[in-house]
Amino acid sequence: MNSAERNATIYGAILIASLAAPWVLPAYQTQLAFLWIMVLFALTWDLVGGQMGYTSFGNIVFFGIGMYVTAVIQRNLHFDIKEYVHVAGAVDTLQPGEYLSGLFLGMGASAIVAVIIGAVLGLCILAMGMRGQYFGICTLGLGVAAGEIASGWDYIGAGSGMVAPVFPERLGERGAFFYYIFFILTVILFLTLKWLYAGRFGLAINAIRDDEDKAEAMGIRTTRYKMTAWCISALFLAVAGGAAGHLVGFIDPTEVAFAGATFGVWMILMAILGGKGTLWGPVVGAVIFYITQEVFWTYLFGWQRVAMGALIVGIVVFFPQGIMGWMRERWPERFGHRVEESTLSSSAEGGGP
Amino acid sequence: MMTLGRALLFGMDNLQILFSAPIFSLQLLIDGLLIGAIFALAAYGMALVWGVMKIINFAQGEFVILGGYMAFAFSRAGVHPFFSVPMSTVSLYIVGWLLHRLVIFRIVEEDLFISILATFGISILMQQLMNQVFTADVQTVDSGLSTWFLFDGNVTVLQIKVVSFATALVLGICLAVFMKKTRLGQTIRATAQNARAARIMGIDTDKVYCTTFALNAAICGACGALVLMTWVIQPFMGLAYTIRSFMIVIVAGIGNVAGVVLAGLGLGAAENFAGFILGAEFQAAFIFSLLVVILVWRNFALRLKRRYLY
User: For chain B, which terminus, N or C, has the lower number of CB atoms within 10 Å?
Assistant: First the structure.
């Protein structure tokens, strides 16, 4: 029971620290809120890219979809579209009730829209058996295409983007408000994933990662599991995107919503840095990466994106197992692996045909 | 929805222009075909690396753009644009060789995940590096050639486009001959067929991989220099070239040179027509959407074929 006690202590400490964080560091509330978005990014990417082995470069699509759906619903609920101006101005007249109803209705709707789009895309891509490099390049194309379409479509502001309504002052502090939204969202995601990975679902998607044909031959309904994982990832990304649009305030089609060059790359980097295919890896990777990024990025004077490319190459080629993967190799007994058994089974595997 | 409909309506307008003035579609077709040869050349390089090393080079487009910037730097230094083509080819060969010695040789026989992500990382690295060094401005070089006017001036053909088309074709033919006739080309083809057997037969496959990767970079260097003269380059345009090469290779199949040429020309023409009909702001969206459609269609076709096995 020692490990259970230790786990309880760890979870309790993280919970208390995260609940207190916006009041301890009030100047960094927005950054802390973004920290939770990053953890969410890494976790959702890892579900598809790490645990299921489908290297996706386009998960950012759902983030952008959620952002736009929420913003459009917020706008259409409270403003006459013909009078609405894209540039901020006549926008700051919302009552707290209006703001909240628009926000939560939008987040709900974006969840539904994202799952529907995810299911349709999944039917076209995953259910047809697209894999490996084809899947990677297809999702890369999806992410860029979505950004390009958004920046050409007038209804959602085209290239000049959209402005989210101003946060009503009576609701308290904006940073703290969004911090708790993202905190709750990420905790829900984490617990969902923990529960899913512990059961049949986790085993099934890991089997798909290791050898999909074998998994199918063993009777696992691979398409169903792949679609489920993809849609869960889409759902959480979209809901987070809806709130993130309001946190950022300005929705640019390619720099904020479908930001493949920043968020889209970060989510991959964070998940590999922490250790893909582990539950805690993406969390650790996201925290380390985001803090480093916030602290050091400004000193690189624009070279930070160069450094990001170098980091991806470096981590993938020299340190592919990531931090948690490395720790699991170093101290296997702490992760619940019996050392003797694993060596036995691996030698038995090696001795086979 | 309303505005999307209006965009489509505009598209219809442009479509009507094409029907009422067929000469205009001839113009689009010629421009597209001339540009398509460059796409086909870049795609040939991608197919080479794909076939021999089993790596899909996500950084293909960045090689093209880097080649363009090399040529740009040379022509800034006073070299005539035409001579900058071989110079950028050689310098990109060196870049490719260095990249292989530093990174690529570690990922050749690794699993899929690593090769995808490593080349993706290289593409980001190169793209941002070019952005830092050459800034994000759009660049081009004037080749000093003039324009032909055909059909009473209704169709204009830039001579530089014809020259670059011819250059791309000549380079492609040289490569095909190189692959068929020379000793090195034969070892590359042998490695593509079966790397293990090639190694048993005494071929230094590591050297073959290195040459192949560098050769691909050199091809991209030539493409980039041609793009610089006929079109424009910009650090973030690379991804579109990667996607184009990938589409062409998928449609044509690896090792099908005639197919690559046809698909490249077809893509050039299709892109030009789409850019005119949908409007210039949707041209990039068209390329990336076309990729998704082609991949989905390909998988659908494969699935139909597989069904007969049951």
Answer: C
A275: left (phi over 0), alpha (psi -120 to 50) or beta: left
Q: How far is B147 from chain A (nearest CA, A)?
A: 32
Residue A332 vs residue B101, higher pLDDT: B101
pTM: 0.84
Verify whether the Cβ–Cβ distance B124 to A55 is below 8 Å. no
Task: Give the other-Cβ count within 10 Å of B112's Cβ.
Answer: 16
pLDDT tens-digit series, residues B236-291 = 888 889 999 999 998 888 878 888 999 999 999 998 888 888 877 788 888 888 88
Q: How far apart are CA A278 and CA A328, in angstroms?
A: 10
**In contact, B268 and B230? CB cutoff 8 Å:** no
Chain A residues in contact with B103 (beta carbon < 8 A): 313, 317
Evaluate whether B237 touches B65 at the Cβ level (below 8 Å): yes
Second CATH level (architecture) for the domain A29-304: Orthogonal Bundle (1.10)
pLDDT digits (tens, 9 = 90+) for B43-96: 999 999 988 888 888 899 999 999 999 999 998 888 888 888 899 999 999 999
CB contact under 8 A, A302 and B132: yes
Q: Using the beta-carbon criterion (under 8 Å), do A152 and B289 form an inter-chain contact?
A: no
CA atoms within 13 A of residue A44's CA, in its CB half-sphere: 33
Say if the Cβ atoms of A152 and B7 lie within 8 Å: yes
**In chain B, what are the domains?**
35-307 (1.10.3470)
From residue B226, give the alpha-carbon distance in Å to each of A346, B17, B88, B259.
Answer: 54, 31, 10, 22
Name the amino acid, one letter, at B164: S
